[in-house]
């Protein structure tokens, strides 16, 4: 088997599927890690795939990476114990002489001790050939996490105050990943990925109103109101704690600064929120 494929974890997820698509556009061989045959059915026709689970025994991980010389690594949101579940895959990659690991990290991770921070630190400790992608808040959050409030109640219900966010399209993250995998010069580099616009949620609501042809409001709830609604929906306490932290960061405008990293790394500008909303409008249509 050729040994020049990219092994992609999370290959059917929002970011992983974009990585797969953009690698294929560049003519790169891909091996997708999937948990089930149902997941495999979501992949582009003809793509190679093999069973992979972060919980599989360490001795099987070398075989998982057979034929691959690069690895796209992302942490599934439910996994908090990265030492148990992600480090063994990194170790296997190092044993096999993987020449590049692109890790999907988090904006600002270098300034806190969140889970992605631990992965970045370990990749440095083992002298891995890493590239860190540190994206801002995904535009896709509006079409997934906050979709129902927009679709069913015509409102964006997040405690962001008057803050701004330079949202990024996850498809652009996939485009960047494909670029840094296929163009030299990105080893041991870290890139903060933001959109080129800094938007308030009031502005986001106006854009959605224009695209959908009905008024979408930014409700601007307090943190207490937001967390109370999540609790009423049955959200567990640890999820509430994460949401509290995330939106405090938003209100501090940590995520407000736009940049041109997507344009610089891929040669094309980042997707605007209006372009994203037009593309994904079905998510909010009734």
Topology:
Blueprint (H helix, E strand, L loop, with lengths): L4 E4 L5 H12 L4 E5 L2 H4 L7 E4 L9 H4 L3 E6 L8 H4 L1 H9 L4 E5 L10 H11 L4 E6 L4 H4 L3 H7 L1 E2 L7 E2 L4 H13 L6 E5 L5 E2 H12 L4 E2 L4 H10 L4 H15 L9 H6 L6 H7 L7
Parallel strand pairs: 1-2, 1-4, 2-3, 4-5, 5-6, 6-9, 7-11
Antiparallel strand pairs: 8-10
Helix pairs in contact: 1-9, 10-14, 11-12
Pfam families: NmrA
Protein name: SDR family oxidoreductase
InterPro entries: Ergot_Alk_Oxidoreductase, NAD(P)-bd_dom_sf, NmrA-like
What would you say this structure looks like, in words?
Keywords: Oxidoreductase. It holds the Pfam family NmrA. It is an enzyme of class 1 (oxidoreductase). This protein folds into 2 domains: 5-135, 3-Layer(aba) Sandwich (Rossmann fold), CATH 3.40.50.720; 138-167 and 195-256 and 271-286, UDP-galactose 4-epimerase, domain 1 (Alpha-Beta Complex). Helix 2 links the parallel strand 2 and strand 3 (48-51). Helix 10 runs parallel beside helix 14 (273-279) and helix 11 packs antiparallel against helix 12. The chain is 41% helix and 15% strand. The strands form 3 sheets. The protein has a 7-stranded parallel beta sheet, with helices on both faces. A two-stranded parallel ribbon has the order 7-11. A two-stranded antiparallel sheet has the order 8-10. It is globular, with a radius of gyration of 19 Å. The mean pLDDT is 94. With 286 residues, it is an alpha/beta fold. The longest helix is centred in the last third of the chain and has 15 residues, at 237-251. The chain is built from 14 helices and 11 strands.
């Amino acid at each position: 088997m050729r040994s020049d494929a990219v092994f992609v974890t999370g290959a059917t997820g929002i970011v992983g599927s974009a990585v797969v698509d953009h690698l294929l556009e560049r003519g790169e061989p891909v091996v997708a890690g999937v948990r089930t045959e149902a997941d495999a059915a979501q992949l582009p026709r003809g793509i190679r795939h093999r069973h992979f689970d972060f919980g599989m025994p360490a001795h099987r991980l070398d075989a998982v990476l057979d034929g691959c010389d690069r690895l796209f690594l992302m942490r599934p949101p439910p996994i908090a114990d990265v030492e148990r579940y992600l480090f063994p895959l990194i170790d296997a990659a190092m044993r096999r002489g993987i020449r590049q690991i692109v890790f999907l990290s988090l904006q600002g991770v270098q300034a806190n001790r969140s889970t992605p921070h631990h992965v970045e630190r370990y990749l440095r400790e083992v002298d891995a050939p890493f590239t860190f992608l540190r994206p801002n808040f995904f535009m896709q959050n509006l079409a997934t996490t906050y979709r129902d409030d927009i679709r069913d109640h015509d409102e964006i219900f997040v405690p962001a105050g008057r803050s701004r966010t330079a949202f990024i399209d996850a498809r652009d993250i996939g485009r960047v990943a494909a670029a840094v995998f296929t163009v030299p010069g990105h080893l041991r580099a870290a890139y903060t990925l933001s959109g080129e616009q800094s938007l308030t949620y009031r502005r986001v609501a106006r854009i959605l109103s224009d695209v959908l042809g009905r008024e979408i409001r930014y409700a601007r709830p307090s943190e207490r109101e937001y967390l109370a609604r999540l609790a009423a929906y049955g959200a567990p306490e640890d999820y509430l704690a994460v949401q509290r932290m995330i939106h405090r960061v938003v209100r501090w405008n940590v995520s407000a600064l736009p940049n041109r990293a997507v344009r610089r790394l891929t040669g094309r500008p980042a997707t605007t929120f209006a372009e994203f909303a037009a593309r994904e409008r079905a998510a909010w249509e009734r």
